Description:
Elements: E1 6-13, E2 23-29, H1 44-49, E3 52-56, E4 66-72, E5 78-84, E6 87-93, E7 100-101, E8 107-108, E9 119-127, E10 133-140, E11 151-158, E12 165-171, E13 182-189, E14 195-201, E15 210-215, E16 222-223, E17 249-255, E18 261-269, E19 273-282, E20 285-293, E21 303-312
Antiparallel strand pairs: 1-2, 1-17, 3-21, 4-5, 5-6, 6-7, 6-8, 9-10, 10-11, 11-12, 13-14, 14-15, 15-16, 17-18, 19-20, 20-21
Amino acid sequence: MNIKILIILIILIGLGIGGFFIFKKEFPSEEKETPLGEEIPPSAEKAEELNLNWQEDAGTRVSDGSVPYVYKLKDGRYRLYYCGAGGILSAVSPDGLTFQKESGVRIAMVFQSGNQESIVCDPTIVELPDGKIRMYYKGSNGSGGPGEALHKIFSAISPDGLDFQKEGLRIDSENTGDGGWASVPEAIRLSDGRIRIYYVSGDFAAGGGIMSAISNDGLNFQKETGARVKGLLLVISLDPRLSPYLPRGIYSYLSQDGLNFENRKVILQKDGAYDPTIIKIDSESYRIYYGEDIGGQLGQPNVVTKSLIGRLK
Protein backbone atom coordinates (compact mmCIF):
# COMPACT_ATOMS: atom_id res chain seq x y z
CA MET A 1 0.00 0.00 0.00
CA ASN A 2 1.33 3.41 -0.97
CA ILE A 3 -0.06 5.35 2.00
CA LYS A 4 1.70 8.56 2.94
CA ILE A 5 2.55 10.04 6.30
CA LEU A 6 2.90 13.80 6.64
CA ILE A 7 5.14 15.38 9.23
CA ILE A 8 5.65 19.11 9.60
CA LEU A 9 9.04 20.14 10.90
CA ILE A 10 9.08 23.58 12.44
CA ILE A 11 12.56 25.08 12.62
CA LEU A 12 13.40 28.28 14.36
CA ILE A 13 16.37 30.53 13.83
CA GLY A 14 16.54 32.75 16.88
CA LEU A 15 18.72 34.15 19.61
CA GLY A 16 20.04 31.49 21.93
CA ILE A 17 21.94 31.46 25.21
CA GLY A 18 25.73 31.50 25.37
CA GLY A 19 26.33 32.74 21.85
CA PHE A 20 24.33 30.24 19.82
CA PHE A 21 21.07 29.98 17.93
CA ILE A 22 19.93 26.45 18.77
CA PHE A 23 16.17 26.18 18.72
CA LYS A 24 13.81 23.90 16.86
CA LYS A 25 10.46 22.23 17.24
CA GLU A 26 8.56 19.76 15.14
CA PHE A 27 4.91 18.85 15.02
CA PRO A 28 3.93 15.42 13.71
CA SER A 29 0.58 14.62 12.17
CA GLU A 30 0.14 11.00 11.20
CA GLU A 31 -2.98 11.24 9.12
CA LYS A 32 -2.69 7.72 7.69
CA GLU A 33 -0.64 4.69 8.58
CA THR A 34 2.64 4.11 6.78
CA PRO A 35 3.73 0.49 6.23
CA LEU A 36 6.72 -0.35 8.42
CA GLY A 37 10.00 0.25 6.64
CA GLU A 38 8.46 1.70 3.48
CA GLU A 39 9.90 5.00 2.32
CA ILE A 40 7.46 7.20 0.43
CA PRO A 41 8.64 9.89 -2.02
CA PRO A 42 7.56 13.48 -1.24
CA SER A 43 4.11 14.50 -2.45
CA ALA A 44 3.71 18.01 -3.89
CA GLU A 45 -0.06 17.59 -3.72
CA LYS A 46 0.04 16.83 0.00
CA ALA A 47 2.34 19.76 0.73
CA GLU A 48 -0.06 22.09 -1.09
CA GLU A 49 -2.89 21.05 1.24
CA LEU A 50 -1.06 22.71 4.14
CA ASN A 51 -0.54 26.08 2.52
CA LEU A 52 -1.32 28.27 5.52
CA ASN A 53 -1.75 32.00 6.02
CA TRP A 54 -0.13 32.92 9.35
CA GLN A 55 -1.09 35.84 11.59
CA GLU A 56 0.17 36.74 15.07
CA ASP A 57 -2.35 36.53 17.92
CA ALA A 58 -2.72 39.62 20.07
CA GLY A 59 -1.30 39.59 23.58
CA THR A 60 0.77 37.09 25.53
CA ARG A 61 -0.13 33.52 26.39
CA VAL A 62 2.25 33.08 29.34
CA SER A 63 4.14 35.93 30.99
CA ASP A 64 6.52 34.02 33.28
CA GLY A 65 8.29 31.62 30.94
CA SER A 66 8.85 30.27 27.46
CA VAL A 67 10.11 27.26 25.44
CA PRO A 68 6.53 25.95 25.22
CA TYR A 69 4.97 22.61 24.31
CA VAL A 70 1.21 22.49 23.77
CA TYR A 71 -1.05 19.47 24.37
CA LYS A 72 -4.80 19.15 23.84
CA LEU A 73 -6.62 17.46 26.70
CA LYS A 74 -9.49 15.03 26.25
CA ASP A 75 -11.96 17.62 27.59
CA GLY A 76 -10.98 20.04 24.82
CA ARG A 77 -8.79 22.33 26.91
CA TYR A 78 -5.18 23.11 26.05
CA ARG A 79 -2.28 22.50 28.39
CA LEU A 80 0.92 24.44 27.81
CA TYR A 81 4.11 23.08 29.32
CA TYR A 82 6.90 25.64 29.49
CA CYS A 83 10.18 26.51 31.20
CA GLY A 84 10.01 28.87 34.14
CA ALA A 85 11.29 29.45 37.65
CA GLY A 86 12.28 26.14 39.24
CA GLY A 87 11.90 23.95 36.17
CA ILE A 88 9.13 22.90 33.81
CA LEU A 89 5.73 24.42 34.62
CA SER A 90 2.27 24.25 33.06
CA ALA A 91 -0.80 26.37 32.36
CA VAL A 92 -4.24 25.44 31.05
CA SER A 93 -6.70 27.20 28.73
CA PRO A 94 -10.23 26.61 27.43
CA ASP A 95 -9.56 28.39 24.13
CA GLY A 96 -5.81 28.19 23.56
CA LEU A 97 -5.41 31.93 24.14
CA THR A 98 -6.11 32.71 27.80
CA PHE A 99 -4.05 30.48 30.10
CA GLN A 100 -4.30 29.93 33.85
CA LYS A 101 -1.09 28.82 35.54
CA GLU A 102 -1.35 25.46 37.31
CA SER A 103 0.14 25.13 40.78
CA GLY A 104 3.35 23.25 41.38
CA VAL A 105 6.30 22.26 39.22
CA ARG A 106 5.98 19.48 36.66
CA ILE A 107 9.72 18.71 36.43
CA ALA A 108 11.97 20.26 39.05
CA MET A 109 15.55 21.28 38.40
CA VAL A 110 18.23 19.95 40.74
CA PHE A 111 19.75 22.80 42.74
CA GLN A 112 23.26 21.41 42.70
CA SER A 113 26.08 22.94 40.69
CA GLY A 114 27.20 20.70 37.84
CA ASN A 115 24.29 18.27 38.19
CA GLN A 116 23.06 17.07 34.78
CA GLU A 117 19.57 18.32 35.67
CA SER A 118 20.61 21.63 37.19
CA ILE A 119 18.72 23.10 34.24
CA VAL A 120 15.65 21.32 32.85
CA CYS A 121 13.73 22.63 29.87
CA ASP A 122 12.34 21.83 26.39
CA PRO A 123 9.43 19.53 27.32
CA THR A 124 7.76 17.23 24.79
CA ILE A 125 5.24 14.50 25.54
CA VAL A 126 3.67 11.35 24.14
CA GLU A 127 0.49 9.67 25.34
CA LEU A 128 0.97 5.97 26.07
CA PRO A 129 -1.53 3.19 25.28
CA ASP A 130 -2.38 2.83 28.99
CA GLY A 131 -3.34 6.51 29.19
CA LYS A 132 -0.21 7.65 31.00
CA ILE A 133 1.85 10.60 29.81
CA ARG A 134 5.58 10.38 29.19
CA MET A 135 7.55 13.60 29.02
CA TYR A 136 10.96 13.88 27.41
CA TYR A 137 13.03 16.91 28.30
CA LYS A 138 16.50 18.42 28.10
CA GLY A 139 18.74 18.30 31.15
CA SER A 140 21.85 20.47 31.27
CA ASN A 141 24.73 20.78 33.72
CA GLY A 142 25.01 24.50 33.08
CA SER A 143 24.30 27.38 30.72
CA GLY A 144 26.02 28.03 27.42
CA GLY A 145 26.27 26.38 24.04
CA PRO A 146 28.09 23.28 22.78
CA GLY A 147 31.47 22.92 24.41
CA GLU A 148 30.34 25.02 27.38
CA ALA A 149 27.69 22.69 28.81
CA LEU A 150 26.44 19.13 28.38
CA HIS A 151 22.89 18.64 27.13
CA LYS A 152 21.23 15.23 27.49
CA ILE A 153 17.66 13.95 27.14
CA PHE A 154 15.70 12.53 30.06
CA SER A 155 12.16 11.23 30.60
CA ALA A 156 9.47 11.24 33.27
CA ILE A 157 6.11 9.45 33.56
CA SER A 158 2.75 10.73 34.82
CA PRO A 159 -0.77 9.33 35.24
CA ASP A 160 -2.41 12.73 34.73
CA GLY A 161 0.08 15.08 33.05
CA LEU A 162 0.66 16.96 36.30
CA ASP A 163 2.51 14.71 38.74
CA PHE A 164 5.61 13.32 37.05
CA GLN A 165 8.10 10.75 38.30
CA LYS A 166 11.55 10.98 36.77
CA GLU A 167 12.67 7.88 34.88
CA GLY A 168 16.26 8.77 34.07
CA LEU A 169 18.51 9.27 31.08
CA ARG A 170 17.24 8.43 27.59
CA ILE A 171 19.91 9.88 25.27
CA ASP A 172 23.39 10.23 26.73
CA SER A 173 25.02 12.68 24.36
CA GLU A 174 28.51 11.78 25.55
CA ASN A 175 28.09 8.18 24.37
CA THR A 176 25.92 8.50 21.26
CA GLY A 177 28.23 10.41 18.96
CA ASP A 178 26.44 13.69 19.68
CA GLY A 179 29.47 15.43 21.10
CA GLY A 180 27.88 16.11 24.48
CA TRP A 181 24.94 17.93 22.90
CA ALA A 182 21.53 16.27 22.53
CA SER A 183 19.05 19.06 23.12
CA VAL A 184 15.59 20.47 22.38
CA PRO A 185 13.86 17.09 21.95
CA GLU A 186 10.57 16.49 20.18
CA ALA A 187 8.95 13.06 20.49
CA ILE A 188 6.26 11.37 18.40
CA ARG A 189 4.62 7.98 18.65
CA LEU A 190 4.57 6.24 15.28
CA SER A 191 1.69 4.15 13.98
CA ASP A 192 3.63 0.95 14.79
CA GLY A 193 3.98 2.02 18.44
CA ARG A 194 7.63 3.03 18.31
CA ILE A 195 8.79 6.40 19.64
CA ARG A 196 10.97 8.71 17.59
CA ILE A 197 12.78 11.67 19.15
CA TYR A 198 14.08 14.50 17.00
CA TYR A 199 16.77 16.60 18.64
CA VAL A 200 19.46 19.18 17.98
CA SER A 201 22.77 17.32 17.87
CA GLY A 202 26.41 18.18 18.32
CA ASP A 203 27.29 15.37 15.90
CA PHE A 204 29.65 16.70 13.24
CA ALA A 205 27.62 14.82 10.60
CA ALA A 206 24.61 17.00 11.40
CA GLY A 207 26.51 20.23 10.89
CA GLY A 208 24.65 21.82 13.79
CA GLY A 209 21.31 20.43 12.67
CA ILE A 210 18.69 17.91 13.72
CA MET A 211 19.11 14.17 14.16
CA SER A 212 16.75 11.48 15.46
CA ALA A 213 16.65 8.35 17.59
CA ILE A 214 14.11 5.50 17.62
CA SER A 215 12.82 3.25 20.41
CA ASN A 216 10.54 0.23 20.67
CA ASP A 217 9.66 0.88 24.31
CA GLY A 218 10.14 4.64 24.70
CA LEU A 219 13.05 4.11 27.07
CA ASN A 220 15.92 2.60 25.08
CA PHE A 221 16.80 4.65 22.00
CA GLN A 222 18.90 3.85 18.96
CA LYS A 223 20.31 6.78 17.03
CA GLU A 224 19.19 6.82 13.38
CA THR A 225 21.65 7.30 10.54
CA GLY A 226 22.08 10.71 9.00
CA ALA A 227 20.72 14.16 9.75
CA ARG A 228 17.05 15.05 9.39
CA VAL A 229 17.90 18.70 8.72
CA LYS A 230 21.54 19.59 8.28
CA GLY A 231 23.43 22.84 8.44
CA LEU A 232 24.26 25.99 10.30
CA LEU A 233 20.74 27.35 10.40
CA LEU A 234 20.57 25.82 13.88
CA VAL A 235 23.93 26.71 15.38
CA ILE A 236 25.09 30.16 14.35
CA SER A 237 27.52 32.60 15.88
CA LEU A 238 25.96 35.35 17.97
CA ASP A 239 27.86 37.84 15.83
CA PRO A 240 25.40 38.80 13.03
CA ARG A 241 28.32 39.49 10.72
CA LEU A 242 28.94 35.73 10.59
CA SER A 243 25.38 34.88 9.51
CA PRO A 244 24.11 37.74 7.32
CA TYR A 245 21.99 35.53 5.05
CA LEU A 246 19.98 33.70 7.70
CA PRO A 247 17.12 35.86 8.99
CA ARG A 248 15.78 34.90 12.40
CA GLY A 249 12.35 33.35 12.48
CA ILE A 250 10.26 30.21 12.25
CA TYR A 251 10.43 27.99 9.18
CA SER A 252 8.65 24.80 8.13
CA TYR A 253 9.80 21.68 6.31
CA LEU A 254 7.69 18.75 5.08
CA SER A 255 8.38 15.02 5.17
CA GLN A 256 6.50 11.97 3.97
CA ASP A 257 8.49 9.45 6.03
CA GLY A 258 9.73 11.37 9.06
CA LEU A 259 13.34 11.06 7.93
CA ASN A 260 13.71 13.15 4.78
CA PHE A 261 12.60 16.77 4.99
CA GLU A 262 12.27 19.40 2.26
CA ASN A 263 10.10 22.31 1.02
CA ARG A 264 11.36 25.00 3.35
CA LYS A 265 8.85 27.81 3.93
CA VAL A 266 8.89 30.93 6.06
CA ILE A 267 6.34 31.02 8.89
CA LEU A 268 7.49 34.09 10.81
CA GLN A 269 10.52 36.37 10.57
CA LYS A 270 10.98 38.17 13.86
CA ASP A 271 13.88 39.10 16.12
CA GLY A 272 13.65 37.81 19.68
CA ALA A 273 11.33 34.89 18.87
CA TYR A 274 12.40 31.30 19.51
CA ASP A 275 11.39 27.69 20.13
CA PRO A 276 7.98 27.09 18.52
CA THR A 277 5.47 24.30 19.11
CA ILE A 278 2.45 23.67 16.90
CA ILE A 279 -0.99 22.11 17.35
CA LYS A 280 -3.87 21.42 14.99
CA ILE A 281 -6.97 23.33 16.07
CA ASP A 282 -9.40 22.01 13.47
CA SER A 283 -9.45 20.92 9.83
CA GLU A 284 -8.79 24.49 8.70
CA SER A 285 -6.31 25.93 11.19
CA TYR A 286 -3.19 25.42 13.30
CA ARG A 287 -1.67 27.44 16.12
CA ILE A 288 2.02 27.91 16.91
CA TYR A 289 3.20 28.91 20.38
CA TYR A 290 6.69 30.31 20.70
CA GLY A 291 8.99 32.04 23.15
CA GLU A 292 9.94 35.66 22.75
CA ASP A 293 12.44 37.86 24.53
CA ILE A 294 10.73 41.23 24.90
CA GLY A 295 13.51 42.66 27.07
CA GLY A 296 15.28 44.19 24.12
CA GLN A 297 18.73 44.12 25.73
CA LEU A 298 21.38 41.44 25.40
CA GLY A 299 22.01 39.76 28.75
CA GLN A 300 18.78 41.11 30.25
CA PRO A 301 16.08 38.79 28.90
CA ASN A 302 12.38 39.14 29.62
CA VAL A 303 10.91 35.97 28.15
CA VAL A 304 7.24 35.30 27.48
CA THR A 305 5.18 32.88 25.39
CA LYS A 306 3.22 34.20 22.41
CA SER A 307 1.32 32.60 19.54
CA LEU A 308 0.23 32.90 15.94
CA ILE A 309 -2.55 31.20 14.01
CA GLY A 310 -2.38 29.66 10.58
CA ARG A 311 -5.44 29.15 8.41
CA LEU A 312 -5.60 27.17 5.19
CA LYS A 313 -5.58 29.40 2.14
